[in-house]
Specification:
The complex is a heterodimer of chains A (186) and B (596). Chain A contains four helices and nine strands; from the N terminus they run βαββαββαββαββ. With 186 residues, chain A is α+β, with helices and mostly antiparallel strands. Chain A folds into two domains: 81 residues, ACT domain (Alpha-Beta Plaits, 2-Layer Sandwich); 72 residues, ACT-like. Chain A, domain 2 (Alpha-Beta Plaits). In chain A, strands 5, 6, 7, 8 and 9 form a five-stranded antiparallel β-sheet that branches. In chain A, strands 2-3-1-4 form a four-stranded antiparallel β-sheet. Chain B is an alpha/beta fold. In chain B, the strands form four sheets. Chain B has a six-stranded parallel β-sheet with strand order 3-2-4-5-7-6, with helices on both faces. A six-stranded parallel β-sheet of chain B has the order 11-10-9-12-13-14, with helices on both faces. The chains are: A alpha+beta (186), B alpha/beta (596).
């Protein structure tokens, strides 16, 4: 099953880090001018005001319009989350901030590259797990694989946990990319 | 210099000056250095903009703040790279916290040397990112004009604040195309000025039914312009509601007005703080529920509905939840609010409000600003009172302050009947603000009386600017309440550190009269209450800047006071006020002691 981030921390299926009492987890999508230092402005605001960043993803999304999209997963009380949104929104090169978690349905995906070094049974088992998670082999040697796995952060967590006893060497994760469902753009 | 091919092609340095002129800038506060020499060369060749040479870059920023705060126009600062920029940081943060429009131009090492630890290189953009509203590094002369105009737009629109443009030296030398200010504004920055009509309507409905209403106003009213202050006065008159203000908002409503309760907050008046605590409808206009205002948050105005008008959406619901948030410019919102209030028949709950005024009258009768007089020592409160009397007699006056006890006494005892007359470092609490701020105010108002109410410790942080005052013939008056102590630090040590006065006194103060003479200004000393009026009159009459050394009672505490971690209705009073004179050493409990 696929778990949605931001689900209650009391849920038996919740796999992410535990939330403190009264706190919620939100995914913010921030549309910014793609100019030097814009990422520093956004993350500097988070560190300067003591807000949490659980995941951060940024890349240019519109080359001609010089726009980038920053996706931030953050936690806080509803009052703090509202404050985070207002604070980010007043940064001059920020065009829009959307709270994807609270403003209707959205999809979230993350990609991870997972390196395992193994031989024998572990090698066979890691391939089985790879198939079960619909991951890809993107590099192979006689004693290692690099798997590419995509999905919700929880799915990736689970994949990594399973690879740990099978010779896990290295993990590189992209952080969450998220977008709202339905026809409307940002 | 390259030959101009047409009138719109010029060097970066020329573009800087042309942009400033086109933005209506009349004065720049600055200090030259290697990385801004091309701009200084252009300043030399023109006479539309006056350059004021300060003695330290921090002084340039506070002078620009004083200029901006007293005129409503943005202040402009020009400093060099590296230390020039880092010295400006305090003033930038000060302007950010008090919402003062300022444009700071910094020189930078040439683009091809950035990142190589060049002489006088600093990561100015990185350092100033959190202490400006926005900043820009200009790497291409063709982008310079547009960036300059954008900077003015950002500094002065929405919630005002400081911006910085970092200009590498090669960009100043190179040629580029000039564009005028018309239509230049950043695409992503469109602050909302008109308030939501439905929200304003809801606010008016709350006001109509209010039994214990209170206006709580702040610096946003001043920033919105004199028109907003007038609208506020009209609305207060139309409703008959009492009004209090933060430190930053003094003068928006006249201190002589009959609905005025005085300043609120940590050292605010008894009546203002009790009214805040007991009100049922609070109309917050351009203030931000700072911790000096609210005291203990969970006991702040516990039974009130709160209307919050602010141009900055991030100010709303930051510390205190607003029942009716209104995002917009104070002037626009007050105009709509007054119109809607009148169109519905200007209704208020007159019986209840009259009863409320009765309660307020009892708090006013406490006379919280009374103090123990003295015939042989000058009490600091007495000194400020006498200064205020003399200034009133003189006519229009502008007051700046440093930070500490004297600042609070100035706020308590000097009445302001007009906006833009009171310049103080509220949010950041910057000692050393007052002297350079007075320089900036006096530059803008050459013939007015400008007084810096100072403490001797704060004064010594930026006293080199007296030299600036002398050079530009600025007759600023520095009125030092000299207690040979860091008075507010001493007061806190007495209150919560067992009277252990760790480093809160000065063992080697200069002779301020001789210091004045050394700077080439007047020096006056007074230590007798009976001679004070004459001495103040001499200071005001003196043709030039004056350092006035007023030797006051050394251990006076500033009252009333809401101790840290306490609620408005737990405030301490001085010994002369009725009900005052409690044991202040037990006033703050351990959980309050961590709060500053």
């Amino acid at each position: 099953m696929e778990l949605k981030r931001g689900s209650s921390s009391h849920s038996a299926y919740h796999l992410g880090p535990a939330l403190k009492e009264g706190e919620e987890r939100r995914t913010l999508s921030v549309l910014v001018d793609n100019e030097a230092g814009v990422l520093a402005r956004v993350i500097g605001l988070f560190s300067g005001r003591g807000y949490n960043i659980e995941s951060l993803t940024v890349a240019e999304t519109d080359h001609t319009g010089h726009r980038s999209r920053i996706t931030v997963v953050t936690t806080g009380t509803p009052m703090v989350l509202e404050q985070i949104k207002a604070q980010v929104d007043r940064i001059v090169p920020v065009h829009r901030v959307r709270d994807l978690t609270s403003e209707g349905p959205s999809v979230e995906r993350e990609l991870a590259l997972v390196k395992v070094a193994n031989v024998g049974d572990h090698r066979v088992e890691s391939l089985r797990v790879k198939d079960a998670f619909r991951a890809q082999v993107v590099d192979a040697s006689l004693e290692s694989f690099v798997f590419e796995v995509t999905g919700s952060p929880e799915k990736i967590d689970a994949f990594i946990d399973l690879m740990r006893p099978l010779g896990l060497v290295d993990v590189s994760r992209t952080g969450v990319a998220a977008i709202s469902r339905g026809p409307e753009g940002m | 210099m390259p030959t101009n091919t047409n009138s719109n092609t010029m060097t970066g340095a020329e573009i800087v000056i042309k942009s400033l002129i086109d933005q209506g800038v009349e004065v720049v506060f600055g200090y030259p250095g290697g990385a801004v020499l091309p701009i200084y060369d252009e300043l030399f060749k023109q006479n539309q903009i006056e350059h004021v040479l300060v003695r330290h870059e921090q002084g340039a920023t506070h002078a620009a703040e004083g200029y901006a705060r007293s005129t409503g126009k943005p202040g402009v600062v020009l400093v060099t790279s590296g230390p020039g920029a880092t010295n400006a940081v305090t003033g930038l943060q000060d302007a950010l916290m008090d919402s003062i429009p300022m444009i700071c131009l910094t020189g930078q090492v040439p683009t091809f040397m950035i990142g190589n630890d060049a002489f006088q290189e600093a990561d100015t953009i990185g350092i100033t990112r959190p202490c400006t509203k926005h900043n820009w590094l200009v790497k291409d002369t063709d982008d310079l004009a547009e960036t300059m105009h954008e900077a003015f737009y950002v500094a002065t629109n929405g919630r005002p604040g400081p911006v910085l443009i970092d200009i590498p030296k090669d960009v100043q030398f190179a040629s580029g195309t000039y564009v005028g200010p018309r239509g230049v504004k950043p695409a992503g920055y469109q602050p909302r000025v008109k308030g939501d009509t439905a929200a304003i309507q809801a606010a008016v409905e709350l006001m109509e039914g209010a039994e214990r209403p209170l206006f709580y106003t702040g610096g946003g009213v001043i920033n919105s312009g004199p028109h907003a202050s007038q609208l506020l006065r009209d609305l207060v008159k139309a409703t008959g509601f009492p009004i209090t203000s933060t430190l930053m908002g003094l003068g928006a409503y006249p201190a002589s007005g009959d609905k005025w309760l005085g300043m609120l907050g940590m050292h605010g008046s008894y009546e203002a703080n009790w009214a805040m605590h007991d009100c049922d409808v609070m109309i917050c206009v351009g203030a931000r529920f700072d911790d000096r205002i609210t005291g203990r948050l969970d006991a702040f105005a516990p039974n009130s509905k709160k209307i919050h008008i602010d141009i900055d959406p991030s100010s709303i619901n930051k510390n205190v939840r607003a029942d009716v948030p209104i995002v917009g410019d104070v002037g626009h919102v007050l105009e709509d609010m007054t119109r809607i209030f009148r169109s519905r028949g200007a209704k208020t709950n007159k019986t209840a409000v009259a009863k409320w005024w009765g309660e307020i009258g009892e708090w006013q009768a406490v006379k919280c600003f009374e103090y123990e007089g003295s015939t042989d020592l000058i009490k600091p409160q007495y000194a400020v009172e006498r200064l205020a009397e003399a200034m009133k007699k003189h006519g229009d006056y502008y007051v700046t302050t440093e930070v500490g006890q004297h600042q609070m006494w100035a706020a308590q005892y000097i009445p302001f009947d007009a906006p833009n007359r009171w310049m103080t470092s509220g949010g950041l609490g910057t000692m050393g603000y007052g002297v350079p701020a007075a320089v900036g105010v006096q530059i803008a108002h050459r013939d007015s009386l400008v007084v810096d109410v100072a403490g001797e410790a704060s004064f010594m942080m930026t006293m080199q600017e007296m030299s600036t005052a002398v050079q530009y013939k600025l007759p600023i008056k520095i009125f030092i309440l000299n207690n040979e102590r860091l008075g507010m630090v001493r007061q806190w040590q007495q209150l919560l550190h067992g009277e252990r006065y760790s480093s809160s006194y000065s063992e080697a103060l200069p002779d301020f009269v001789k210091l004045g003479e050394a700077f080439g200004c007047g020096g006056i000393r007074c230590d007798k209450p009976g001679e004070l009026d004459d001495a103040i009159a001499e200071m005001i009459a003196y043709d030039g800047p004056v350092i006035f050394d007023c030797l006051v009672e050394k251990h006076e505490n500033c009252f009333p006071m809401i101790p840290s971690g306490k609620a408005h209705n737990e405030m301490l009073l001085g010994s002369r006020a009725s009900g005052g004179g409690g044991d202040i050493s037990k006033a703050i409990e351990s959980d309050g002691a961590v709060l500053v």
